[in-house]
Amino acid sequence: MSDIRVGVLGLGSMGRHHVRNARETEGFELVALADPGGDRFDVARGMEVLPGVEQMLEVGIDAAVVAVPTAYHFEAVMKLAEAGVHTLVEKPLASTLEEGEAMVKAFDDAGVVGAVGYVERCNPALLEMRRLVSEGYLGDVYQVVTRRQSPFPARISDVGVVKDLATHDVDLAAWVAGSEYESIYAQTAFRSGREFEDMVSATGRFKNGVLVSHLVNWLTPFKDRITIVTGERGALVADTAMSDLTFYENGRFPVQWDQIAAFRGVSEGEVTRFALVKREPLRVEHEHFRDAILGTGTEHVTMREGLQTMKVIQAMLDSASSGEAVKL
User: For residues 169 and 146, is the Cβ–Cβ distance under 8 A?
Assistant: First the structure.
């Protein structure tokens, strides 16, 4: 079977990495690049940089990666759906729920793969965490907690921290917990003088009863990328910046200190750090996209899943505006 002819639309901060991975992913042939702003990261390597999606379609592509700013997702993706092109679009899926719903319908009607680039699902630590949770390693799961904090990235200009960063945590938490959100309550802050929020603190519950909490901001002078799943046997902690996964087991020995023993909880037990094969998450994402096109895998994040995440993100913003919890 011939390789899948791939085009990349958008050669910016994320697009340049998609170009590299599209070139190197087995089964892909990179045949078209497009960006109206040109090739500022010098990734074309002699390939012509086309002005837009229409010219990319004229080259003849089977699949596309869309890595333009969110405001331009809808127009480009709808043209790709109409042309019957399998598409991987960077997160979030769209600017509005209405656009997202139209995109999902367009790809369903076209019968081609529509995927969303939630690359954290391809992080080695989270892949292993989800496998262990799904196999009952923790027993009953009680809570999922995420922290995503860092300095402000100058590349972001069109959205706040909720749509840019919290969207990752909403998606991965639901994926790890194996359930959709039932409710969410959020508070935001505007501390850097921008139009959009730069801090959010959110708590909620999944439909399966698992509690969830997200802490996200652009005002922390270090990078913090942590996901914690607590269950009846202990806690799994993923540091996704380093792709490390650690298990903190509940203690097995009775507590002999009366003041602590009086509290009916758990004690500290053994700590296990897992040895993981650490592949680049974006490469894994491209392979999942390829396998979905070939019909040999279903690990990609579908546009319908991306739309559900958008609904939770909008509920976060609505909750922050109203001061009330939002049920989904």
Answer: yes
Query: Going along 92-140, which residue ranges are E strands?
Result: 114-117
Q: Is the bond preceding residue 92 a cis peptide, omega within 30 degrees?
A: yes
Under DSSP, the state recorded for 215 is E
* 8 Å CB contact between 174 and 206: yes
Q: Which of 101, 117, 94, 98 is nearest to 8 (CA)?
A: 117
Tell me if 57 sits within 8 A of 82, measured CB to CB: no
End-to-end CA distance of the chain: 44
Taking only the tens place, the pLDDT of each residue in 77-96 is 999 999 999 999 999 999 99
* Cβ neighbours, 10 Å, residue 154: 7
- Residue ranges of alpha helices (H) inside 111-166 are 124-134, 161
Can you read off the two tokens belonging to residue 200?
Answer: 């959010």
The predicted model scores a pTM of: 0.92
Helix axes 73-82, 97-110, angle to 10 degrees: 10
